[in-house]
């Protein structure tokens, strides 16, 4: 109940292991990669809603905890606030969904999932009589399951807040997911349902025989020369809250962004299949297109657990509540990782999300204009 209060939210967001049940540490690489560095000054302003806004003032307004700007493999800007440091393990919230997508892509490439059009209950047979029965895996990836769900954090009676209370009260996420009902035919309407991601996490555990933490350690964390340990929060059944409770350092979030910027390769070796990375931010169906879309409840487009803000649709972003982000612009070769403790987020959700895209695009444009030799 006190997690998001103004006076302690910043400290709470780097202390999840003290507030909740932490999973096993996902160990940093034996040989961490040290980014190159080069000096760069952030642009003074950005354009938003046809006005010029002060960028530094915006970082303050949105309660920024950490900001890191990469051009290729070089840090151009890195700064921390509110008691954060380069080693702080900051909660990612739904940025974690993009990590889970990568793990599903690896499992699919390894042949552990037969077909993305398979219904989820082919693998999770205890969901045969639930609202998730018959829902294809691909529709879970694209937040198009058709499940009835209210994800309004500002509404105390919403399903997402009911989910939080259920987990805090000891109900397993698996049991909670079985209470949900289907509202629309799968694959016809884009509507954000965090439990869709948790279903994918259960699928990952089922087909690999390993926990989400073990999968992340083995297939990604140890492969991208991470600098610091990370961890998930667990429910009372010992399952990772993979839909949003991964805590890690800003530098390691940026490394994951760099992995995707390089289309799944790290030091020339494939970590995530190139085809999966490309599909993750491809707008392949009408209901996933950004803008005023009658078949979507959001103005941003969506891929495999990645957002495509659109206009243009060349950049893409992992986005978490309270303004956590990994932004990727393949054209300028810029990655931006940002953590925040913006207690105002529930009341200003779309405004803060759109503002951040404008900020990130202004930074990427400034980097490109600087014509840096990196």
Number of DSSP strand runs: 15
Structural class: alpha+beta
Order of helices and strands: HHEEEHEEEHHHHHHEEHEEHEEEEEH
* CATH architecture label name: 3-Layer(aba) Sandwich
Share of residues in helices: 25-40%
Indicate the mean pLDDT.
97
* Count of distinct structural domains: 1
Oligomer: single chain
Rg over C-alpha atoms, rounded to the nearest angstrom: 19 Å
Number of helices: 12
Distance between the termini: 46 Å
Strand order of the largest sheet: 1-5-4-15-14-13
CATH class: Alpha Beta
Instruction: Look at the structure and name the CATH superfamily.
Output: DD-peptidase/beta-lactamase superfamily
What summary fits the major beta sheet? 6 strands, mixed
By CATH, the topology is Beta-lactamase
Coarse shape: globular
Strand content: 15-25%
Q: Which spans have pLDDT < 50 for at least 5 consecutive residues?
A: none
């Amino acid at each position: 109940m006190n997690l998001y209060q103004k006076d302690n939210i910043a400290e709470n967001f780097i202390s999840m292991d003290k507030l909740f049940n932490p999973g096993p540490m996902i160990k940093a690489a034996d040989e961490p990669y040290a980014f190159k560095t080069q000096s760069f000054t952030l642009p003074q302003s950005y354009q938003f809603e046809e006005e010029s806004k002060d960028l530094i003032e915006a970082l303050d307004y949105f309660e920024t905890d950490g900001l890191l700007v990469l051009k290729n493999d070089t840090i151009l800007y890195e700064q921390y606030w509110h008691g954060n440091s380069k080693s702080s393990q900051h909660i990612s919230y739904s940025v974690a969904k993009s990590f889970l997508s990568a793990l599903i892509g690896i499992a699919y490439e390894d042949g552990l999932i037969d077909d993305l059009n398979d219904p989820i209950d082919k693998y999770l047979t205890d969901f045969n009589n639930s609202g998730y029965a018959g829902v294809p895996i691909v529709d879970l990836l694209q937040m198009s399951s058709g499940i009835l769900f209210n994800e309004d954090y500002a509404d105390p009676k919403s399903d997402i807040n009911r989910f939080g209370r259920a987990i805090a009260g000891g109900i397993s996420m698996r049991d909670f997911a079985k209470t949900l009902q289907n509202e629309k035919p799968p694959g016809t309407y884009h509507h954000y349902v965090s439990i869709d991601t948790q279903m994918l996490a259960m699928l990952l555990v089922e087909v690999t025989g390993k926990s989400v933490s073990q999968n992340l350690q083995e297939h990604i964390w140890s492969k991208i020369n991470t600098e610091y340990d990370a961890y998930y929060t667990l429910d009372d059944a010992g399952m990772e809250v993979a839909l949003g409770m991964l805590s890690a350092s800003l530098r390691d979030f940026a490394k994951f962004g760099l992995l995707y910027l390089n289309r799944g390769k790290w030091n020339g070796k494939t970590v995530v299949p190139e085809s999966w990375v490309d599909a993750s931010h491809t707008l392949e169906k009408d209901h996933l297109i950004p803008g005023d879309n009658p078949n979507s409840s959001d103005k941003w487009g969506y891929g495999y657990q990645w957002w495509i803000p659109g206009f243009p649709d060349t950049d893409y972003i992992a986005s978490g509540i309270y303004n956590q982000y990994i932004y990727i612009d393949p054209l300028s070769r810029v990655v931006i990782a940002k953590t925040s403790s913006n207690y105002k987020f529930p009341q200003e959700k779309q405004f803060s999300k759109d503002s951040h895209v404008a900020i990130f695009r202004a930074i990427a444009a400034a980097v490109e204009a600087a014509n840096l030799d990196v």
